[in-house]
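Anyone else keep sequences and structure tokens together like this?

Example one:
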Amino acid sequence: MSVTIDIAGLPRERITFAPSPLAELCMALHALSQPGHHPRLTSWTTATSASLDPCLADRLLEAEFMWRSSFSDIFMPFAGIPGEAGRPSATLAEELDVMDRLDDERFVGAALEHCWLALYNEGGGPSPLKNPAARAKALEVAAARGPRQLDFSVRLLDDPAGVRVWLRRLLEDCDEAFFAETWKRLEPGQSADARHKAELLRRKGLPAALKDVSTALSVDEGLTTITADKMVHGTTTATDPRIGGGLVFVPTSFGWPHLLVLHAPDWRPVVHYPLDTPEPASGPGSVELLQRRMEALAHPMRMMLCRSLARAPYTTSELATVYGITAPEVSRHLAVLKRAGLMHTRRQGRYAQHELDLAAVARIGSDFIEGILR
């Protein structure tokens, strides 16, 4: 599973790194609504939530599906304006101005993105502003989230202009309440990181720059396709003439463990990458490796073998005797564990002794959380 970005023929100067205050505000709102995703931000989320004006906190609940369960593309409007530079603005006010210039269909489709995530790669289907069936589906999904979300979605479909004004005022109030001070603290570090990665791209090339962005990103030898290792399928292109070619990398201080790839049709692709991503002790783990490990441990006999292998080294014949199965059966189970990187073997004279890699097993919990949230 992965998201791929076609960059065949894309000039290097069309790959840019830049912070986005509006995208970071989205991540800050997500952290406030899903503090369990971001244990490293506990002190910030706790203090900020406690200081929020109750009226503002109540208003945030109305539209929180735009940042709680998905990350609406509406917070990266620079990627949705055809024929322009396609990069973030320096200030939140400037980015809100860009958001105001999205046409109604693009604005509403991005705001209600959560209603058709399954159709994201196909353009999200017909517009709910024009298609009764699409409208009914959007409202059905919104109703499942709660009455406030349903009311907001009805208002959005009936009065897009009014909701635009309401949403901008909400985000401006968030800026005044907590984000302006937070962004003042975060922006220098994000700008420095963007400059560093742009220089790395210039001096050492795209593979080195991608590796520095995230171990979940890679590019093929021909430098034609970037792959993001995520538990989702998706494709996009950075050379679509309808929107204008380009690829933007946007850092986030609030994002880990999320690595986001905007890959909506008719939008420029954007990679929203977390700063200060902790590196796994045993090297970068892929979603495929995580899947192999989960499958390896799902078998009851392999779980029993792990119980012994976690306590001491064992030979194949010893394990066969303990569990009453044949040595070839033990070998097959051990091969699965070895392919999953969960055990290692060492020679002791003429015997091969097998032992569980406790560090690798201990990482499965955090790898699982990072993998499904990436």
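And example two:
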Amino acid sequence: MNGPGARGGTTVRDALRGWGGVTAMAVVCALVALVALCLPLTTATTATQNTTATQTARTKAAEECEAPEKQTLSPSSADGDTIRAIKNRTGEKRKLIVGVDQNSYRWGYRNPNSGKTAELEGFDIDLVHRIAKDILGDPDAVQFKAIPTDQRIPAIQDGRVDMVVRTMTINCDRIGDVAFSAPYFKTGQQVLAPKSSPVKGYDDTLADRRICTAAGSTAFAALEADQKEGKLPASTDISTTVPNQLDCLVRLQLGEVDAVVTDGALAASQAAQDPTVQLKGDAFTAEYYGVAMKKDADDLVRRVNQILVDYRKDTANGWQASYEKWLSATLGKDAENSEPPAPQYLRTT
């Protein structure tokens, strides 16, 4: 004879074998299905929240940003984790990995006449060699990676490069994504057009004209903002964008666009490549080039800032000598162009 406990056990087993069991199983399945549905929903919600938080932080940083060229750390020669990781690379890998341009004449340019190797040369390239010499003791301990304008920030964030030295303007939007050194050059946006063109500068003569800019450039951002605010004629076509700035010069030569807007320093070098084009009007912005690095690479930022201090002081083989070699022919000896901008550091910690 079964006791109460046994009767209870039998009843439960019997229930599970009958319709009660089916009902119980249905409840369990429903719960499992609900959990399965909720998990990806929760993951997606978390991802969305993280993305929103990041965008909010970047927007806040941009709104609070003033004088972006000062948003950098004070100089230091000390090695930190980032620099030690670079120094600890072995064999052929023991090099500074730097994103550069290879199409910007006199800045970052692969000269086809420099021999079989067609070495990179220019103002930015000189600076890269100086940084490599200071950190690794060898100016040639560099692995150059040619990257298009719109890939400069992703290349840094993805760890494909240690830094980017590529006529990269320091601005409030970008300092939310990467860290910058102190400025090493001052320039501004200008218009480049054929000498025979009726375009006179950044004014109403651009009405009904097609303008080319590099994708992801400060030039395009300026045009887009000014057109919305009515500072640029509404009929100006700014839809043509290209991966690399030099592509705009090609589009201009082919007659596919009527003008190019880019940094005056780059435009002057393009005019040197093609004597049929010229700068039109004055610069309509003031911008600074900086070396871009990862947001958390504080020791590398400080080290580059120290290198820039020494580079400016070195009259024989530093900033001034590089300017004379590469840029004075196109930019002249005007003090505003031919002297490095004074470093200013807003952040000390």
